[in-house]
Amino acid sequence: MNQHSSVILSSTLLLAEEAKASRENLMKQLLRQKQIPMHSWDDLQIRYLFTYLSALDSNNFPNHTGVGEREGRVFSQIVKERHFYLSHGIGRSGDIKSSQPKATGSSIVSQLANAMALHAIHLSGIRNAKECVVVPCSTGMALTLCMLNFRRQKPAASHVLWSRIDQKSCFKSILAAGYTPQILQLKIDDNNDQLKMTLEDLEVAIENLGVPNILCVMTTTSCFAPRIPDDIINVAKICKRLNVFHLVNNAYGLQCDKICNIVEEASRVGRVDAFVQSTDKNFMVPVGATIIGSFERSIIDSIAQLYPGRASASPLIDLVITLLSMGQDGYLELRKKRKTLFDDFKQKLSILAAKYDEKVLSTPKNTISMAMTLSKLDSALKSAEITKLGSMLFTRQCSGARVVVKGQGKLIEGIIFEGWMSHYPNYTCSYLNVAVAIGLESREIDRFLKILEDCLCKIYSRSSE
Questions:
Q1: CATH 3.40.640.10 domain extents, the chain
Q2: Class for domain 105-309, per CATH?
Q3: Which one of 142, 253, 358, 446 is CB 3.0 to 4.6 Å from 353, fit for a cystine?
Q4: Which range among 2-6, 154-158, 373-377 shows the weakest confidence by mean pLDDT?
Q5: Residues 239-283 pLDDT 10s
Q6: Mean pLDDT for the chain?
Q7: In this structure, are residues 175 and 183 in contact, taking their beta carbons and an 8 Å threshold?
Q8: Residue 23 known to bind ligand
Q9: Is 70 known to sit in a ligand binding site?
């Protein structure tokens, strides 16, 4: 009996050791290759990795004695667990990418986050990108950081050329960097409902201001319809020819094949110094970080060295965990699903719009956002009544939809934006914006359309009274 039990025990131990070795091999492969694994990791594997990494930080050493001013002490046990016992953050005072001697585990997390983010950029279609850095700040602050870095090479410049997009943070990022925005107004496309920048206006602005006075051209890819991505391929050619920095606001464009393709092509035929994207919008993590990518390693190194002080590792931990949970196949499948759902949503919204003699605006170059006209309400209701559609949707637990009322202005930092939220002084009609972002489910689309129809029925009946 004892002998039999011993045999069972030894065979069980052998299986357990094999399982442990398998997990350790996965971990070693990740640390060696620093790429998103082909297939997703289970939660136990991910926790195993972070338990190992946290044990490498000096504050978690068994006999650690710290007599400095910053020794990774954390009072709350809940906070310790929330951060996987990693408390030193990332970087050093002179470089956000530098390793910390007393925090080997945290430094590895930083390296993994940057390397895996670059791998995700390559998987998304921007294969020519050479380097990136994950910075724990908003997209707007990351744009500011890029402009401050450009200032080193062009200290006398005073203006940033910016094609209008009605989103406050990118406009304020220019002001925060200490520059004057030169706003390039959009035009309605002759063949459809799209709003687009024109290369003629860009070249006129460059000629009027003079190249020495221009820090950079800031273009935008992902945006709310009816605006479409800027023609960054031809802008890149102009910037290369005139030797002007080109900064691309790619906030939530990484999830879109078409956008990634034009960023890649722009880098091949012209000049793109940096492109900036949010982690929460592209990878379904909590708000907290931005990926700054470039086609020149030296630019990212320079930005990393400009960042003042250490930084929080929390959003980098979130990104590493999420990419491990997705795996390459999971991430690519999510991007593929988003593309399919966009076409489905657009078709269903068009059918609903037709019931009320409205339409979905024709914006074929915007494959993330779409807009449904509310033109019948413009003549029947006051602006305040039209905006009630947005609050009706929100109180029914539908978030993200935006009601844009024709012709409303807004004052931001002393500058008046006529037709605020529509990217244009006087767009042809009011409209409702929706978007198909990564992670959206088909059932959410169906539920939204059902609620929207109920709300439209109420508001259109009110307009006919």
A1: 105-309
A2: alpha beta
A3: 358
A4: 2-6
A5: 999 999 999 999 999 999 999 999 999 999 999 999 999 999 999
A6: 95
A7: no
A8: no
A9: yes
Is 241 annotated in a binding site? The answer is no
DSSP 41-70: PPHHHHHHHHHHHHTTBGGGSTT----SS-
* CATH code 3.90.1150.10 region(s) in the chain: 330-463
What pTM value is reported for the model?
Answer: 0.95
Q: What is the predicted pLDDT for the residue at 1?
A: 46
**396 labeled binding residue:** yes
Q: How far is residue 449's CA from residue 336's CA, in Å, rounded to a whole number?
A: 22
Q: How far is CA 365 from the centre of its chain?
A: 19
Please name the residues in contact with 227: beta carbons below 8 A apart, sequence gap of 6 or more. 165, 186, 194, 195, 196, 220, 363, 366, 423
Tens of pLDDT, residues 326-343: 999 999 999 999 999 999
CATH number of 330-463, picked from 3.90.1150.10, 3.40.190.10, 3.30.530.20, 3.20.20.100: 3.90.1150.10
Identify which of 377, 349, 369 has the alpha carbon closest to the alpha carbon of residue 450: 349
In this structure, what token pair is assigned to residue 75?
A: 């009072």
Q: Residue 100 annotated as binding?
A: yes
